[in-house]
Every structure is written in structure tokens, then in C-alpha cells.
Amino acid sequence: CITNLMELRLQFNQLKSLPPRVFDCL
After folding, report:
1. So what's the pLDDT on residue 10?
2. Cα–Cα distance, 19 to 26 (Å, whole number)
3. What InterPro entries does the annotation carry (predicted)?
4. 9/1 Cα distance (integer angstroms)
């Protein structure tokens, strides 16, 4: 998965495009 999950989550929250689970293992 990705190393900077925190940073990615922050950006993902702004986009709100895909679920967090998918982002965890993008």
C-alpha cells in the first residue's frame, strides 16, 4: 500500500471520490 496514508487521506477527504479502503491499498 502507500506509505503516506495520512497525507493521502487528507487529500482524499477533499476529493471524496473513492472510499478510504481503496486509497489504503491504491
Report:
1. 77
2. 11
3. Leu-rich_rpt_typical-subtyp (IPR003591)
4. 13
CA distances from 3 to 7, 9, 14, 18 (A): 9, 11, 19, 18
| pTM recorded for the entire structure | 0.30
DSSP 26: -
One-letter amino acid for residue 20 of the chain? P
List the grid coordinates of 21.
479502503
Helices (H), 1-26: 5-15, 20-24
Report the 10 Å Cβ neighbour count for 9: 13
Check residue 20 and give its pLDDT. 62
